[in-house]
Structure formats: C-alpha cells, structure tokens
Fold this protein.
Amino acid sequence: MLATDVYGSAIAPDFLKPEPIQHFPASVFPWMNPIHWLHSHFAVGGWSPLQRLSGMLTAHMTRIAPRNGFTWHPHRGLEIYTWVLEGTLFHQDTTGGKGEIGPGELQRMFSGDWIEHQELNLTDEPVRVIQIWYAADPAHRGLEAHYQQAGPGELPATQVGDATVWSLIGGGSPMQQHMHGRLTASHLPAGGTTTIAPPEAGEDLFLYITDGEGQAASAGSNPALGQYDVLLADPQAGELTFSAGTRPLDWMCFYLPKFINAAV
C-alpha cells in the first residue's frame, strides 16, 4: 500500500529513509518507449516509486523524434507546465492558444473542466522537454481553461555562485499558478560551483537533474550526479553545494508541501 498524505502524495513503501537528503540514480526510475518516436523518463508518476508528490502527478522527461508528436487529446482538472530543454515544440489548444516553445521557455496550460490540445515536433531535430502535471487546487477548478507562455527574458533570473537560477513558479515569476509549490531551473557552467537553498519550514525538495554531470555535497552526503538523477531533501538537509564536472550541470528544484514524512 502506498503511503499518502493530505496533499495527495503517494510513495512506494520503504522507498524513502528517514534521512535529511537522499540521492537516487536515474536507473531507479522507469524509462518508457511505448512507440518508436517517444522516449520518456518518469521521476514522478507512471511506474515510478514516487507516484505523486503533494499534488504533483508527474514530473518526466519526454523526447519526441522529428516530425512526430501527440495529436489532439483532452485533459481536465490539471495545471500542466512544460519546460523545453532542446528543440522546438508546437502547441495548439481549444482556447485558441497556439505557437512554438523553444529552449528556456515555459508554458503553462490550465485545463479547467476540459481542454484539448496537441503537442508536435514539426522540425527535423528531436525535441526534449520536462513536463509537470499538477492536480489543480479545488479552489480554482471552476476557472475556464487558459494558456500562458514566458520566455527567458520574462522569467526572473538570479546569479548564485557560478549558477544562473530562473524562477519558473513563484519567486516573482509572471506565471500564474493554481497549485501549491515553487519551482526553479538552474544552469551551472562546466567547472562551476553553487549552493542550493534547503526547503523552508513546511516544504520538502524534489530536485531533478536534467543535463550534465557533477557532484553534490552536504553534511554526511557527497553523491555523484548524472542526468535524470533525483535528490530529495527536507529542511534539516541545510544548504547543498553543487559542482559541475567537465560538462555544464542543469537541474530543476521543486519546493513542495511536505511529502517525505508521509512515507517514512
């Protein structure tokens, strides 16, 4: 039976330990290749041991081959964020939202009670995105479906050590939100170092490495980091230090209402 909490978290039994910070290599989580043009890595949702985290239903990498994609399909009761890592994704929905999303751009689609959309790679190069599905907060489920997109110049950016950190959800981001949590994306050049703030009281951290290689350091833990690895931390983890190896290191930090205590 999955451990659950009031925020809708569900985690496989005995997957987590009562430790302030935990590292999981990418191989712990499922890869999916249901059709020739699609490859996905599910850190949250799908067949992952992390089924749901504080209302976050999925956090996954999806790679779409050239001239392929998802044609018209419906959603309801969701707020879906799409962060493009490489390539160009074409989006169109039944609210009239339409356009291309490129690297460093964030799209938010609120499905309301019903929306249909399509997500297509119309180019000759692969597209790779991180997509995050949240259950919409019940207080907002009466809102009409709508669409929002922001580029790198619109998303607040700060320098933390050698890293650039963009606020995607919360932290001054222009993105509206109808879910609980904060989200940042970070880029650390090769050979650089930076620090990562621990979650605040009432939060836990889900951190997803999206590219590169490097090292993390905190009290009692010094894991090597690779693409699609996951770190989980609670406020007692304290400040984390990241260093990039011979390649840049990129990751996303999801600061969510507490989900670790429900599973340990």
Remarks:
- The mean pLDDT is 94.
- The domain at 20-259 is CATH 2.60.120.10 (Jelly Rolls).
- The chain has one domain: 20-259.
- The two ends are 13 Å apart (CA to CA).
